[in-house]
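retry 2 of 3: previous attempt timed out while embedding 5-hydroxymethyl-3,4-dihydroxypiperidine. Reduced batch size to 1 and resubmitted. Inputs unchanged:
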Amino acid sequence: MSPAAPFPAGFLWGAATSAYQIEGFPLAGGAGPSIWHRFAHTPGRVARGETGDLACDHYHRYLDDVAIMADLGLDSYRFSVAWGRVLPEGRGAVNQQGLDFYARLVDALLERGIRPMATLYHWDLPAALHDRGGWLNPDSPRWFADYAEVLFRALDDRVPFWITVNEPWVVAVLGYLEGQLAPGHRDLFETPRVAHHLLLAHAQAVAAYRSLGRHQIGIAVNLEPQHPESPSAADLEATNRRDAFINRWFLDPLRLGRYPEELASIFGLAWPDFPETDLERLRDSGDFIGVNYYARGLVRAAPDAPPLCAARVSPPDAELTAMGWEVYPRGLTQTLLWLKERYANPPLYITENGAAFADPPPRAGRVEDPRRVAYLRSHIAAAAAAIAQDVDLRGYFAWSLLDNFEWAEGYDKRFGLVQVDPRDQTRVPKASARFYREVIASRGAAAMPDWAPRGDAR
Ligand code: IFM
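retry 2 succeeded.
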């Protein structure tokens, strides 16, 4: 790397999406419904009763979207496969039409020189499997590995990067403990079992990949450094609990072969005695860690809020995104350095980073989103700062390519580089898309403080 080049040669610049958030037509072509299809169609679950029925209609417009990606100059595109398109019942007979959709997408990407990164599970469990207990069923890791094998056999000749599970913490905690995401459970006893099965699912898919695949496979976790609101002993303890709960719960077993000891006291009687043989299976599974970073956590002790007894608060003068998340780019550098120190410098990709803001409508064909430009700039510079301290960071994926269905928030939280009008599906690249294109063309230099802009490209 030359002193002027903040990112190493071969660094991947990408953008990310997920199936239920963009594809639309979730039952087309013989697909089986997912828990998200059911959840979104249950009154009261999603803001304004919105669903992923149409989303960005990427299912039909994927070629237009690949053309947008090519125009941005993306090296790579991270998408997810809807399990129920490929296996409508979640297991058993393969639905060739569903598999063909992803094969066509992959081929279109490769024709444009864009390397696919495929996520196997981004929260849309087939409803048929949920009816058999879903992630609570001890057979669920086997179901997942069998599904993964179908994809490896069909696409590994063309897909160089695989992600098993996206944000298992979100699945376990927001899906089974807090209930704001599908399947909407609130059960302390279910949560650690779901988390454990997700980890085993990841490990079994990786084991299958070792005999079938030729490329790289990892997991994507949501991470956020935890900072105490005050130096009081209570806030410090709460911060440590929240750090174990969010940052170490999934990575310690995968990298160190053990769960953080704090989890047993957080969950109390709900924490099972997991077999040692399971933990041995988890250890060292995967070639890289995908990091989804959005914000830090500022923590205040909250004795009346079990099981964690720790609350996330906002500093009074913080800049917040439309999600209410603090803009805190230094936290990305801290997270990457923490991963390097704690887990012996593993290969890393930033598999998601971005921000929701209330963008204005297009004017003369342009959408100005200066806060998103500033967010991307500062976070890409924060990634470069980690690389300068020898973090093995190999890629950055902006979340998201398109404005899309932001789960229980519906469509009004907009993360896209490209504005999508939900009424007529018009796509308008925002100023952040133009900025990101310049970042990619300059191999990252355009996000650095000393960059001399060449003027607004288009
Ligand atoms: O939209 C989500 C994505 O599906 C998972 N990571 C966080 C994003 C923003 O909330």
